Structures are given as C-alpha cells and as structure tokens.
Amino acid sequence: MSRLPITIATWDHDRVRALVDGRVRVEGCYVNYLTMPIKNREP
C-alpha cells in the first residue's frame, strides 16, 4: 500500500521538531514539512 502524501507548514517550534527530524512518524503518510516564518499580527 502506498503512503498518503501530506504537507505540513509550521514554524520551527520545539513541539513539532520531532516530527520534522523524523523521530516521530505519521503512520501511513509521506510527510513534506515546510518551515514558515512567523507573521506578526497588527494590533
């Protein structure tokens, strides 16, 4: 069975780093990670 391709766009955050570096995997998925900059919100 082929893996489902998904893309996750996130910023470099310690809570997702294990997913990005491969220590934790998404079962059944081929994951493409995009590290995006944080956009500042105007008040």
Quick tags:
single chain; 43 residues; mainly beta; two-stranded parallel sheet; 1 helix; 2 strands; 9% helix; 33% strand
Distance between the termini: 48 Å
Mean pLDDT: 88
Shape: elongated
Q: Please state how the strands of the largest beta sheet are arranged side by side.
A: 1-2
Q: Biggest β-sheet, characterized?
A: 2 strands, parallel
β-strand percent reads 25-35%
* Helix and strand sequence: EHE
The radius of gyration is: 13 Å
Structure commentary:
This protein is mainly beta. It has one domain. 9% of the residues lie in helices and 33% in strands. It is built from 1 helix and 2 strands; from the N terminus they run βαβ. Strands 1-2 form a two-stranded parallel ribbon.
Question: Could you write a compact summary of the structure shown?
Answer:
The protein is mostly beta strands.
